[in-house]
């Protein structure tokens, strides 16, 4: 059982001080901050299953369980909440449409296993090989193309109720620039609330399932299916997501190390990857969405200066308890398509912009042809929906575009270096915030 030292008097944090991962405030304060973490993650976590058609309560359950597993695997040294990853939306949507939910879950499991294996390698050998595989131009391109590939899905939802969608989108944008700090970070959640109220006034809500749902009960479970036709084609679509999860987890670890002024936190990078991989695998096996470390919760820690893992134990337990209410899940499932259309228009675009921000932050030199074509070709492939098929086996646009980015960069860079025609020097993997969350 983990234990924590009491920080100071347990009630306040002195100016310039932080509550470290192995410390805590008194239990009332710790529980209050844990509840804040639940509110912070909730807006983004429920959107993923709502968009993909997965059970909201099941995703919430495995989000809580995943957080607790993360704390155990990282030996209670790395504060983090594991919520739904937006990087899974595109492959889950495509796989569910072509091969069914069981095959989509198999893809999530495959990503989790691969991420855990990479975590083991990182724990043993370090991050150097990842830096070489995925320099900033490649990392930014892969993150961006995942968001832009989803643009048609946003438009399909938007068309269902253009007025409600427009109000939802406008509210999200307004809240993001109107509010600072925590409220600004949950602008998508607040915008969805506004859209939901407008849809209710317009008579667009179907609340019958909410009335019929029980207050207490187990979530709905689905089992990953590795034998259904089309499953292995579906799994291929998920593999680029691994690169995004690596970037998110590395960025999270580096962010916590910087804010706590404790470089030793960086030594938990391998364990963080393993933990997220295990969490994603468990979720995928039984019907939950894939997980990742959450930027929204980084924001809560930065605002409170409390990095205690005790607060995350509280958050994980609260999430599990909330998941045991089918009525809560039914409320989220009642969100109409128009509201989702407004939210996803902002959300998918934000994913793309985070990829572009990686280029800007790392000063990617686009005067070099190898960088130009790495990004240009991959983005067009993703937006247009390029696919490749061999009989029943098909590779979706995300995997085709991601593979193109890697091949163009590494082969093109080798030729450019040999011919001295403008090779890219690469650089370390950039820190990436949780997709769709706080872009800071």
From TrEMBL:
Membrane-spanning intervals of the chain: 54-73, 80-99, 105-130, 137-155, 161-179, 186-203, 223-246, 310-332, 338-360, 395-412
Subcellular location: Membrane
Statement: the UniProt record of this protein carries the keyword Transmembrane: yes
Organism: Microbacterium caowuchunii
GO cellular component: plasma membrane
Protein's membrane topology: Multi-pass membrane protein
Name of this chain's protein: Nitrate reductase
Keywords: Membrane, Transmembrane, Transmembrane helix, Transport
InterPro entries found in the cross-reference section: NCS2 (IPR006043), Xan_ur_permease (IPR006042)
Family listed: Belongs to the nucleobase:cation symporter-2 (NCS2) (TC 2.A.40) family.
């Amino acid at each position: 059982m983990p234990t924590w030292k009491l920080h100071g008097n347990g009630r306040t944090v002195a100016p310039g001080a932080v509550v470290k991962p192995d410390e805590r405030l008194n239990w009332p304060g710790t529980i209050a901050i844990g509840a804040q973490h639940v509110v912070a993650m909730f807006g983004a976590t429920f959107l993923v299953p709502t968009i993909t058609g997965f059970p909201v309560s099941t995703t919430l359950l495995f989000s809580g369980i995943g957080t607790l597993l993360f704390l155990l695997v990282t030996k209670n040294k790395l504060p983090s909440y594991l919520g739904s990853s937006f990087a899974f939306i595109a492959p889950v949507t495509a796989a569910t449409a072509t091969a069914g939910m069981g095959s989509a879950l198999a893809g999530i499991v495959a990503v989790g296993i691969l991420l855990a294996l990479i975590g083991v390698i990182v724990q043993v050998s370090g991050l150097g090989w990842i830096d070489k595989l995925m320099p900033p131009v490649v990392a930014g391109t892969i993150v961006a193309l995942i968001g832009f590939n989803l643009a048609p899905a946003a438009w399909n939802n938007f068309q269902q109720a253009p007025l409600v969608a427009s109000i939802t989108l406008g509210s999200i944008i307004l809240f993001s620039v109107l509010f600072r700090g925590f409220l600004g970070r949950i602008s998508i959640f607040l915008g969805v609330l506004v859209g939901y109220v407008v849809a209710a006034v317009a008579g667009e809500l179907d609340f019958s399932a909410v009335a019929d749902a029980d207050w207490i009960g187990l979530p709905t479970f689905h089992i990953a299916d590795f034998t259904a036709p089309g499953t292995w084609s579906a799994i291929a679509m998920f593999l680029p997501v691994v690169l995004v999860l690596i970037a998110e987890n590395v960025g999270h670890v580096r962010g916590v190390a910087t804010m706590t002024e404790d470089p030793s936190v960086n030594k938990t990078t391998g364990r963080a990857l393993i933990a997220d991989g295990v969490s994603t695998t468990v979720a995928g096996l039984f019907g939950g969405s894939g997980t990742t470390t959450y930027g929204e919760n980084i924001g809560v820690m930065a605002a409170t200066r409390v990095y205690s893992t005790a607060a995350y134990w509280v958050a994980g337990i609260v999430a599990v308890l909330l998941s045991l209410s089918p009525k809560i899940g039914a409320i989220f499932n009642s969100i109409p398509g128009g509201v989702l259309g407004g939210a996803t228009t902002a959300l998918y675009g934000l994913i793309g912009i985070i990829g572009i921000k990686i280029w800007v932050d790392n000063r990617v030199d686009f005067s070099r042809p190898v960088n130009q074509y790495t990004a240009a070709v991959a983005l067009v492939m993703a937006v247009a929906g390029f696919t490749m098929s061999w009989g029943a086996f098909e590779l979706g646009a995300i995997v085709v575009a991601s593979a193109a980015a890697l091949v163009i960069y590494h082969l093109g860079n080798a030729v450019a270096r040999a011919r001295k025609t403008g090779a890219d020097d690469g650089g370390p993997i950039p820190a990436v915030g949780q997709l769709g969350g706080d872009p800071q």
